[in-house]
ATP-dependent dethiobiotin synthetase BioD
Amino acid sequence: MSVLVITGTGTEVGKTVVTAAVAATALAAGRSVAVLKAAQTGVRPDEPGDAAEVARLAGAVTTAEVARYPEPLAPATAARRVGRAPVHPHEVAEAAAKLATEHDLVLVEGAGGLLVRFDPAGGTLADAARLLSAPVLVVASAGLGTLNTTELTARELRSRGLALAGIVIGSWPAAPDLASRCNLADLPDVAGAPLLGSVPAGSGALSPTAFRAAAPHWLAPRLDGTWDAEAFHVREAPRAS
């Protein structure tokens, strides 16, 4: 796996922090890593974006963006409103493929969910993943409502013939409610894919040193980590009434 596409079931689910955790864990395993942000929205030219945040937390990664727009909107809308060229899936794929010639692992982080539009023709991150023949890692929220959005994302990936690498919970609460704890069993079931990690809420606020030391403990061996899904489930899942 030289390219891994990372998407979310929506916005604000912890996608960038998970990307940083995957990058940090791969670096700890001795792999060279590049992080490509397909379309950065909501930041000015002089502000650090998501790729820079991944580098701050994870360490020595190569970072790149295909395009950047100032308003926090879907990329196609953000591009239209400022009169700039949109991002096209083939541009994302070409940039990722070039990085893959120079790195062991390229992480392609999307914007929002899988079908957020990049361009007026309806191009999406899913189209870039197809061009790359790359597996997709889905970052999901922990609580109520996540089963629906996760299953919809998984079904869409399969309908397009794309490989779903697995699910990572982007922000596991310190005091999980009943829905969150039940979702540990239900998420892999509705997705038809394994749970590959759980990142504690607030991890993005850790110091880079603490983040890098902890990241491998949040991710499963398939992502170079040591996280044990079964042990986590036993510890966190609710007991039958």
About this structure: Residues 158 and 224 are 25 Å apart (CA to CA). The mean pLDDT is 96. The domain at 6-122+140-236 is CATH 3.40.50.300 (Rossmann fold). The chain has one domain: 6-122+140-236.
